[in-house]
Amino acid sequence: MIPRYQTILFFVLLAASIIMGALLWQLRNREHQRLLQGEQTTPTKAPEVAKAEQATLMVANDSDDSLSTRALSLPLPPSPGERARAILGRLLDLYAASDAAHPVPGGAASIAQVFLLPVPTAGSASGAASQTENNPPAAEMAVVNFNGSFASNHPSGIETESLTVLSICATLHANFPRITEVRFLVDGQEHETLAGHADLTRTYLTTEALPAQGAAQ
Questions:
Q1: Are residues 80 and 170 in the same domain?
Q2: Whether residues 109 and 37 fall in one domain
Q3: 26 in a domain, yes or no?
Q4: What's the 3-state SS for the chain?
Q5: pLDDT tens digit string along 65-78?
Q6: Predicted model pTM
Q7: How many domains does the chain divide into?
């Protein structure tokens, strides 16, 4: 026989448990609704998309060792180095296409970085330190850093390697007229040649690429 006080205590505890469970369920639903309300009212920030601008590509053609001008509208970031990388990436995408007149595998991923550095001029002892945003350098050097796979997979030959180098130099100058010199790295290091022929240890002048409408030298 269960004592009367234990029976009363049991029902009191049972009622308290039911009440507490109901309160917790109500609080949970209220918090869930509050979170949903916050998600619906929080404005969603649209992803930033680079503005499309016109870029000029100097596209190589193996059939006559020439460079031809092609104007395209491309989304370009504001940073000059990133803009140069995006433009050169599009040029290499053309070369990686199945119908390319200058077939080179790799595409845009072949360009790791592009750095733009001021070229010291005569009488400017301070060099880069004297350059400011309001006083840009009169001339710049572009340092193009290829991924190692681009150099290892590039077709070998003096003509095809030279066309790749000259088309990059000409494309950089066409979009950044202050670029007068170009250096090339592979995986961040100096590399002797592109694929056995084109010298990558030297500094290229963009003027060497500008008249390249005939055979590449």
A1: yes
A2: no
A3: yes
A4: CCCHHHHHHHHHHHHHHHHHHHHHHHHHHHHHHHHHHHHHHCCCCCCCCCCEEEEEEEEEECCCCEEEEEEEEEECCCCHHHHHHHHHHHHHHHHHCCCCCCCCCCHHHHEEEEEEEECCCCCCCCHHHHCECCECCCCEEEEEEECHHHHHHCCCCHHHHHHHHHHHHHHHHHHCCCEEEEEEEECCECCCECCCCCECCCCEEHHHCCCCCCCCC
A5: 999 999 999 999 99
A6: 0.71
A7: 2
